[in-house]
Amino acid sequence: MKQLKDILYKVTINAVAGSTSIDYNALHFDSRQVSKGDVFVAIKGTVVDGHDFIETAIENGATAIVCESLPSALKDSVTYIEVESASQALAFMAANFYENPSENLQLVGVTGTNGKTTIVTLLYQLFKKAGYKVGLLSTVKIMVDNKEYKATHTTPDSLTINKYLKLMNDEGVEFCFMEVSSHGIHQHRTDGLHFQGGIFTNLSHDHLDYHDTFAEYRDVKKVFFDQLPKSAFALVNIDDKNGLVMLQNTQAKKYTYALKTYADYKAQVLENELSGLLLKLNDSELWTKLIGRFNAYNVTAIYGASELLGLEKVEILRLISELESVSGRFQYFISEEKVTAIIDYAHTPDALKNVLETINSIRTNNEELITVVGCGGDRDKTKRPKMGHIASALSTKVIFTSDNPRSEVPETIIEDIEKGVEPQNFKKTMAIVDRRQAIKTACQLANSNDIILIAGKGHETYQEVNGKRTDFDDYKIVEEFLKQLQK
Ligand SMILES: CC(=O)N[C@H]1[C@@H](OP(=O)(O)OP(=O)(O)OC[C@H]2O[C@@H](n3ccc(=O)[nH]c3=O)[C@H](O)[C@@H]2O)O[C@H](CO)[C@@H](O)[C@@H]1O[C@H](C)C(=O)N[C@@H](C)C(=O)N[C@H](CCC(=O)O)C(=O)O
Ligand SMILES: Nc1ncnc2c1ncn2[C@@H]1O[C@H](COP(=O)(O)OP(=O)(O)OP(=O)(O)O)[C@@H](O)[C@H]1O
Ligand SMILES: N[C@H](CCC[C@H](N)C(=O)O)C(=O)O
Ligand SMILES: [Mg+2]
Predict the structure, then answer these.
(1) Where are the beta strands (DSSP E) in 101-182?
(2) Residues 134 and 276 in one domain
(3) Antiparallel, parallel or unpaired: β 233-237 and 253-258
(4) Which of 30, 99, 303, 445 has the most CB atoms at less than 10 Å from its CB?
(5) What order of strands is seen across the sheet that includes strand 106-111?
(6) Are residues 221 and 272 in the same domain?
(7) Are residues 131 and 276 in the same domain?
(8) Please, are residues 327 and 140 in contact by the beta-carbon 8 Å criterion?
(9) Pocket test for ligand 1, best of 38, 41, 48 (most atoms within 8 A of CB)
(10) For position 487, what pLDDT does the model report?
């Protein structure tokens, strides 16, 4: 068994009390999981401070403590290690503990406000189709080649990431695609990982509850690129004004993609239909089942990354045309009454705007576009009026409803959303707190050829109210009501 000193490799240590030449069992950052002989890493969180649980961890059997400030009274039987950053230390220790699994596969991280899940899932699909064993760490699920695991975060904690990467090593996985969220970067969840590539999608309003300013949110994303090694590639969307910012200080090889400006990977939308997109990508034409201009960006990023990872151009084009849409991302069906229902995970102002603009560019304008949308509780409040404005300006009818109110009062969230509705659009809107009722009403209002957009929850199969999750699936519910109303 490895000793404590072995997993401290690369950790910036300020002080040590006790011996690091000791055996240990497991590594934990939650005192409640600690048992005899474990190492406890005390992390300052957003709610509590892990340092307050050092005593409990020792009572539970911890024989080593990693922390940012040593407790005033030290126990002889325990080794204390004072580090600069406990969450960063945890990331390096987790990587060492699992024997640096990221070095044994080609790991690509995707960051940006929107498009991460779409890109990593499609890259996973594409490399599977190309015959490789592939891993995926995403908001929707974790895949160790064909084996599926439940995802709890977009970017899990560093112990969890390394645990799955190790499983991928054991399974012979050659490529892994992972989402890198701004929370993940800020909390050092991805430190200590060896990336072969990084992709930047775009930056727009989100998480301004967690990051104080937009500039801070941007700079956190940039840290991911600053940390990429020379051997990696950095592929960024330069139609986004922050694309070049990401490249400013990176050592990685720099590549760009765009629809509007000259770039290494340049696409042009030739056709944009409900059945898919026809693109000109560099010199080739390419058909994809993915819908909407924003997906032209995603496809271009996928094309670029696949080429940078060594696949042949012709093969990439063929495989892209076979890709299926990602669960809850512009997923749609047409009922027997010819009502189109679209389920989309748009939960930011920019995503909602893109999806509505896409629908408006496809529809003939004789139909109604009925949008059902809400905003999450305990999340960025400033995006609520913006989403209210966008939904009401770009739809013909809007039903504001609940989307995971969490600990907040649902009516208050809806009031925040309504603050963004301009007077001329108010008549188009109504509020129905119960999401199921809201979807039902949308179905009752819809006539043949009308379009219903249900935004915000995408693949989610629950509604979270006061910390309790109950089953809820937008797709199934709208399908059920449209069938019922047909009879
Ligand atoms: C705001 C946030 O990101 N919180 C994450 C953070 O928790 P925290 O800072 O609140 O932790 P805390 O409760 O203050 O506890 C601090 C430390 O004390 C420890 N503790 C606590 C209690 C105790 O009895 N003993 C003990 O040791 C905790 O284990 C922790 O290490 O660290 C935890 C462990 O890694 C995460 O599970 C938790 O994610 C929460 C559940 C969460 O909702 N996160 C969301 C916002 C999130 O991370 N989202 C991003 C992406 C979103 C996007 O892209 O749109 C994601 O990557 O999923
Ligand atoms: N490249 C893109 N640009 C803008 N909007 C996009 C793009 N790709 C997808 N979207 C929109 O954003 C929504 C979320 O997409 P996706 O799940 O891929 O993003 P994400 O970055 O993984 O989000 P999260 O931060 O929740 O993990 C989609 O349902 C779609 O409405
Ligand atoms: N990763 C995002 C997802 C938001 C999805 C939306 N349905 C909500 O619950 O707010 C978050 O945790 O902020
Ligand atoms: Mg995601």
Answers:
(1) 106-111, 134-137, 141-144, 147-150, 175-179
(2) yes
(3) parallel
(4) 303
(5) 147-150, 141-144, 134-137, 175-179, 106-111, 197-200, 233-237, 253-258, 265-273, 276-281, 284-288
(6) yes
(7) yes
(8) yes
(9) 48
(10) 53
Look at residue 131 and give its three-state secondary structure.
Answer: coil
CA 161 to centroid of ligand 4, rounded, Å: 15
Residues 314 and 450 in one domain: no
ipTM of the complex: 0.96
pTM of the model: 0.93
Q: Is 157 in the pocket of ligand 1 (CB under 6 A)?
A: yes
With a 6 Å cutoff on the Cβ, whether 68 touches ligand 1 is no
pLDDT band at 1 (very low <50, low <70, confident <90, very high): very low
What is the amino acid identity at position 99?
E
Residues with CB under 6 A from ligand 2: 114-118, 139, 154, 179, 181, 201-202, 294, 297-298, 329, 344-346, 350-351, 354-355, 458
The runs of H, that is alpha helices, within 74-115 are 86-97
At 100, is the secondary structure helix, strand, or coil? Answer: coil
pLDDT band at 123 (very low <50, low <70, confident <90, very high): very high
Nearest to 458 by CA among 325, 369, 329: 329
Which residues are annotated binding-site positions for ATP?
A: 112-118
Cα end-to-end span (Å), the chain: 66
Do 89 and 19 fall into the same domain?
yes
The tokens for 479 are: 């399908």
Of the ligands numbered here, which is closest to the C-alpha atom of 112?
2
